[in-house]
Each structure stands twice: as structure tokens, then as C-alpha cells.
Specification:
alpha+beta; Aminopeptidase; 8-stranded mixed sheet
Amino acid sequence: MGDVRNPTDQPVGPELDWAPVPRPGRVPLRGEHVLLRPIEPADAPSFYAVTHDDPGLWTYMNDGPYDSVDEMRRSLEAAAASEDPLYFAVVRDGRVLGRTSYLRITPEFGVIEIGNILYAPELQRTTATTEAIYLMARHAFDDLGYRRLEWKCNALNAPSRRAADRFGFTFEGVFREHMVVRGRNRDTAWYAIVDADWPTIRAGFEAWLDAGNFSAAGAQKKGLGELLAQARGS
């Protein structure tokens, strides 16, 4: 037999002053450029109108695309009733232009994930989408006390992986043959921000979102990656 030791002799990690944290609730998260609010079946006409012309938006989703407003409404009825994932509508200028969610919510360990993100073309690559991630991260860490915020995507989903990098998530590896989605294998790329990372990442987000970082025409002066690097250096 190999070396057998008393398990109490093995390193098991530092002790924590830890108690389970609350589950996120159906509360609005409001920023300067975007509102995240609980999704509703009544959002179906608006969401369908801005997504049905581009089936490619749904390539890496577990649902959709939808063939009618009624079909989307049935999906949103289920989404509105779901506790995990907990879905939010992404609203800009009073219009529903996307969705997002918290999922795989594990209050006993302080772990939560952001996912099911889908933005209409007109919302993509805007200040609103960056602020949406900031609002969700800030709520998870600062308001609810989570220790770990995860981001997972199909390893082939290059735009999602670039977004995770841009938002300051740390790449932790690829879980091979992790899922079967729509009859196809999915290797899953795994990213996370932990509570020790968050103060620096929050500072980078807030510097990027500051009005002084944008010209009168709305062009950014410094990129989020540059500001995150500056925050880490300071």
C-alpha cells in the first residue's frame, strides 16, 4: 500500500468566518445607462421585435430562436417564474433590448454565475452592456456578500471569451465534454472573479463608466482593459 496518513495531518485550507449569504431577489438594478429589472411575459413583443431577424444571436444559447411573439411569451412566462436562473430584462431608454441572469446560485458557498446573456444588435458594444455586468457584479459582491462570481461559455464562443477577459474575469480552464447542447458537444470555458479581485476590478469599471472618460461624441478615452491594468498597478 501507499503512504497512508491521518486526514487531519493534511492541509485543508484556511478557516473562514463564513455564513451563507442571501439569494438574489427580484429587484431592479439601475445604472446611468441601463436598467436591469425582473423579466416579464409582457416583454415578449419588444424582445421578439429586436431579436427575431437575427437567428445567429441564439447560436450559443440553450433556447431559441423563437418563431412568434406567442412562442417567446411562453418562454418568458417560464423565465419570469424561475428562481435559478433568475432572469432580468435589459432596458435602455424604456425599451427591452436584452436579457441576462444569475444562475447556479449557491448561497451556502457564496458562489454565483452570470449567464444567459443575449443582447439585440443595437445594444451590443455599448456603454449599457458594460454597465449591466458592473451592476450585476456589484450587487453580488457588495450588496449580497458573494465570494465568487463565475462566467462560463462554450469554448468555441470567441466573443463571450473576449468579453470575460475584458471584464476582468480570470480564465481557469476548459472543462472538456462538459455538456450536450442541441445535440452537440460543448467544452466549457470557465472564468471567475473572486472577492479578493473585486475591489480592483470595481475601481476599473467605475473609472471606465465615469462621464469624464468619454468625449462629447461618446467615444471612450481609455479602454476598460487599460483602466483595469492601472487599478491593479495602483
